[in-house]
Amino acid sequence: MSTDYDVAVVGGGPAGCSAAVFTARYGLDTVVFDRGRSSIQRCAYLENYLGFPAGIDVETLYGLMHEHVAEAGCTLVAEFVESVTRREGGEGFVVETQAGECVTARRVVAATRYDGEYLRGLDDEEAMFETYEHDGETHERFDRSYAASDGTTPVGGLYVASPSSEADRQAVVAAGRGARVGLAVVGDARRARGRPASLADHYDWVRQESTLDDEWADRGRWREWYDERRPANHTDDEQWQAMRERDIDRRLGTYLTAEEIEQRTERGHRRLLDHVDDDLVLERAREIRSETVEAGE
After folding, report:
1. Are 25 and 204 in contact (CB under 8 A)?
2. Are residue 264 and residue 236 in the same domain, yes or no?
3. Which end of the chain, C or N, has fewer beta carbons within 10 A?
């Protein structure tokens, strides 16, 4: 099935960006739609987002999230999504923006907190939406318990990171749920590409090369490990070997030398400086220079 994207994420807040980073880093062609009105922008200042001991202003965090999305390889589109519908034939989705532009995607991640109006028609509305009373009137809203804890839904290929009863109140929780949903998407994509359930889970991390012992540096040992997990009904030897070798390449490629770690550390610090006020950087540089002179170094 040919589509414009493997994954379309609707919402560019913490949940959507987190999911997109995981899918794009795995190699799934990902687009993120963000209208610039994420609920996080209603916050005055974030003081409980892990990693920022003095807190972080919303504008800076938003900029960091979107730069991370772009660095991972996502396409970021500043448009409001009007609707998500099934493609003709029932496989994949058509995502239409308010401006009338359409793209197709194999999978869709809903990551907008307030409502799921753009999802109407994808499933039985009694299952997807719930009624509630407000000021004596009956209203409908997206059912926050519609999706499973990993974001999967009764609609094949549709995932919900938000709205969700588990992750709608704190930005750091929303980011965590987005990551979980992103990994669920990756796992489903791996299964669709022939990985058996025993090998579908994916871990996105890099490790120190110094921790790689002789046993697991050997491709032959990895081949044994994979073959031990080969299902009895996987009878295509050529397909199995090709999949196994790709996975081994990916695993061995996650080990970094000390030099590579140092290079990435410096690059990461420099990228952070792009989001810090220049006057504060200069002020701190002057303080460091003064402290060095006083110490006689």
Report:
1. yes
2. no
3. C
| Domain coverage including residue 173 | 5-192
Secondary structure class of 274 (helix, strand, coil): coil
Number of domains in the chain: 3
Single-letter amino acid, residue 176: G
The candidate with the shortest Cα–Cα distance to 81, out of 69, 91, 95, 94, is: 95
Looking at residue 6, its amino acid is D
Q: What is the pLDDT of residue 40?
A: 80
Tell me which DSSP letter residue 117 carries: G
Domain-located, residue 266: yes
The answer to whether residues 175 and 224 belong to one domain is no
Residue 225 corresponds to which tokens in the numbers above?
Answer: 């490990």
Among candidate residues 166, 192, 218, the one where a domain is terminated: 192
Q: What average pLDDT does the structure give for the chain?
A: 92
Residue 91: φ, ψ to 5°: -110, 125
270 and 145, same structural domain? no
pTM above 0.85, yes or no: yes
Which residue type does 235 have? T
Strand 102-111 to 93-97 pairing: antiparallel
- CATH of residue 130's domain is 3.50.50.60
pLDDT value at position 36?
Answer: 66
CA distances from 70 to 21, 46, 66, 180 (A): 9, 23, 6, 20
